[in-house]
Design goal:
It holds the Pfam family Catalase. With about 675 residues, this protein is α/β, with parallel strands linked by helices. It contains 17 helices and 18 strands. The protein has 3 domains: about 300 residues, Catalase HpII,  Chain A, domain 1 (Beta Barrel), CATH 2.40.180; about 70 residues, Up-down Bundle (Hemocyanin, N-terminal domain); about 140 residues, Rossmann fold (3-Layer(aba) Sandwich). The chain is about 30% helix and about 15% strand. The strands form 3 sheets. Strands 1, 2, 3, 4, 5, 6, 7, 8, 9 and 10 form a 10-stranded antiparallel beta sheet that branches. It has a 6-stranded parallel beta sheet with strand order 15-12-11-16-17-18, with helices on both faces.
Length: about 675
């Protein structure tokens, strides 16, 4: 089989399930051609509907059962297809073929999601984000089920129902949706201090990403790599977005919930449709087994991370998302991930959170997807053949021939037969395990605050301010004053000044004790140290008739060559006429556009005769400026910057030398925000 055939294998498999109804005759699900689809079969024109109307029954029965239970967590998701290509052979650490054979391009399916909200909630809520990847490998499906935050709330999976119950809407009134700004969640936080580190991340900018394309992914748990000689290594997985990790402001995130609740979905879909394929590099932190206990934390503690300055991330390869789904329900909603879906060369550790996940994920799929055959749904099927003695059950699609469905047997020559490890059969790592049966937690798990402080120490000034603002908003919504006070006292253990500032903002007493002696920081944790790029950034081009046609065309052509995505906004949608017969197509007007939908603004022409237009534009600019975005202007557009007193402010670009202006604007957009403004 050639490489190209391997690359297309999964897509060809899915193709056999794709159906285009256009131009086809209507039939029942049994293939019977239907002559009428709008009128039920009745006894006379005004009589009762008859039970014998099999088409009516089939149509209504299917409709009645079209909704499956949504996921308890990660209900709101969006997904895309792509491929993974390996940069370097990692056989020193693992025998997994996807990480050792650089000639293979592996099909992938990635589902991004929020954790808290229901399927109908908004995209930009403050929340962790899921980052689940299914690799369709020649050795079977491998699922890397990650989040955009490298740590978790709890250390032991037995507490997972508790933390989810706490952050979900309160059960007596089902309020609030997709938000942790309520008493139950913060009561849980105050009384379960192991979650302090995760809460710091949730209150940071990481919880309101600019885009799925601009957020990191982390495997959270510690896994194992095992090489061909049986040598094992601890491993942490990292997805690194090529565009860098960047965020919205809190005000933008809130406003987008109304202006465009599908903001992240639209962003991902549109980027792929226009060919701006999202790229993520996959890296690993490798720890030798002999070094397991050399850290000041326990590697098996999911509330801790390994600082990248101590164990650098080795970049293994790149994932590129190249195709949107054909059907949201069939693919995005029915895809089933499970951290237990591994291939030879990848194994587990005794991380108690991971151990619980290995049970819980598959248990969840049974009720969501209607029984044990969910692996036969096209999006979940491996590209390699699978053979075993499993039969029957809801939604069985495979038609197994032959009489034998058990092992061992003689009637089928004792097949399907197990495969020896040396021939590719999966073998678990032989870790020595001993001890008493006990319900207890290792003392090495009892440091709850040092890494939370390290995270705080790693933040820039703007990032710290945003964390304080987030705490003040969330705790300010808590009605029970005792819960507010408990949290201030808890986070005094992270940083005393942080807790004192929050206390003043939410009307409780400043903590009387606390503070931390931890001075350690990790620069890799600050988003201001991420790669900066102007590529795929959306620029609002505000223009009206009479603009300088050749000038604007040259600017827009240059920006497009640099990967920016201009969108024309005018008084009305349609053609906008410039000089020298240059026309632009306004796809938005001031009623459909909003500054929070864009990364930067370019003012082309001055005020219009339409006063409502002028007022809208003034508000548009003020908001973009307040959100620290790049603003540029040429010609008559400069008068807007004079009126709003924006001239010579950081990130505000004006230049009579047009090529210089265009280049300076791109460089400014690449900075994401201008926090010193």
């Amino acid at each position: 089989m050639t490489d190209k055939q391997k690359d297309n294998e999964k897509d060809e498999q899915l193709e056999s399930f794709r159906v285009n109804d256009k131009g086809k005759y209507m039939t029942t699900n049994q293939g019977l051609k239907v002559s009428e689809d709008e009128l039920s079969l009745t006894a006379g024109v005004r009589g009762p509907t008859l039970m014998e109307d099999f088409h009516f029954r089939e149509k209504l029965t299917h409709f009645d059962n079209e909704r499956i239970p949504e996921r308890v967590v990660h209900a709101r998701g969006f997904a895309a297809h792509g491929e993974f290509e390996l940069y370097q052979d990692m056989s020193r650490y693992t025998k997994a073929k996807i990480f050792t054979d650089t000639s293979i391009k592996t099909p992938v399916f990635v589902r991004f999601s929020t954790v808290n909200g229901a399927r109908g909630s908004g995209d930009t809520a403050r929340d962790a984000r899921g980052f689940a990847t299914k690799f369709y490998t020649e050795q079977g499906n491998y699922d890397l089920v990650a989040n955009n935050i490298p740590v978790f709330f709890i250390q032991d999976g037995i507490k997972f129902p508790d933390v989810v119950h706490a952050f979900k809407p309160e059960p007596h009134n089902d309020i609030p949706q997709a938000s942790t700004a309520h008493d139950n969640f913060w009561d849980f936080v105050a009384n379960n201090p192991e979650n302090a580190h995760m809460v710091m991340w949730i209150m940071s900018d990481r919880a309101i990403p600019r885009s799925f394309r601009m957020m990191e992914g982390f495997g959270v748990n510690t896994f194992r790599f095992v090489n061909a000689t049986g040598e094992a290594f601890f491993v942490k997985f990292h997805w690194k977005p090529k565009l860098g990790a960047h965020s919205l402001t809190w005000e933008e995130a809130q406003k987008l919930m109304g202006v465009d609740p599908d903001f992240h979905r639209n962003d991902l879909w549109n980027a792929i449709e226009r060919g701006d394929y999202p790229e993520f590099e996959l890296g690993v932190q490798i720890v030798n087994e002999k070094d397991e206990f050399t850290f000041d934390f326990d590697l098996l503690d999911a509330t801790k991370l390994i600082p990248e300055e101590e164990v650098p991330v080795i970049i293994m390869g790149k994932m590129t998302l190249t195709k949107n789904v054909d059907n949201f329900f069939a693919e995005t909603e029915q895809v089933a991930f499970h951290p237990g879906n591994v291939v030879p060369g990848i194994d587990f550790t005794n991380d108690p959170l991971l151990q619980a996940r290995l049970f819980s994920y598959i248990d969840t799929q049974l009720i969501r997807l209607g029984g044990p055959n969910f692996h036969e749904i096209p999006i979940n099927r491996p590209i390699c053949p699978f053979y075993n003695n499993q039969r029957e059950g809801y939604h069985r699609m495979t038609i197994n021939v032959g009489r034998v469905n058990y092992h061992r047997n003689s009637l089928a020559g004792n097949t399907p037969a197990p495969v020896p490890p040396e021939e590719g059969g999966y073998k678990h790592y032989e870790e020595k395990v001993e001890g008493r049966t006990i319900r207890a937690r290792s003392k090495s798990f009892t440091d709850f605050f040092s890494q939370a402080t390290m995270f705080w120490n790693s933040m820039s000034g703007p990032e710290r301010k945003h964390i304080i603002d987030a705490f003040s908003f969330e705790l300010g919504k808590v009605k029970n004053k005792s819960v507010r006070q408990q949290n201030v006292d808890l986070f005094a253990n992270v940083d005393l000044e942080l807790a004192e500032t929050i206390a003043r903002n939410i009307g409780v007493s400043p903590p009387t004790s606390g503070g931390s002696t931890v001075t350690k920081s990790s620069p890799a944790l600050s988003q201001l140290n991420m790669p900066m790029s102007a590529k795929t950034r959306k620029v609002a081009i505000i223009v009206s008739d009479g603009f300088n046609g050749p000038l604007v065309k040259s600017v827009l052509d240059y920006w497009k060559s640099k990967g920016l995505v201009p969108e024309i906004i005018s008084e009305d949608q349609g053609k906008v006429q410039g000089t020298k017969n240059v026309q632009l197509e306004a796809t938005q007007n001031v009623y459909t556009a909003d500054s929070v939908l864009y990364d930067a603004v370019y003012m082309v022409r001055g005020s219009s005769d339409d006063m409502a237009f002028n007022q809208k534009i003034a508000n548009f600019l003020d908001e973009a400026f307040r959100h620290k975005k790049t603003i540029g202007a040429t010609g008559q557009g400069v008068q807007w910057l004079n009126v709003n007193n924006f001239i010579n402010k950081p990130g505000v670009i004006t230049d009579e030398n047009i090529p210089n202006f265009a280049n300076r604007f791109v460089e400014a957009v690449a900075q994401h925000r201008h926090w010193d403004r």
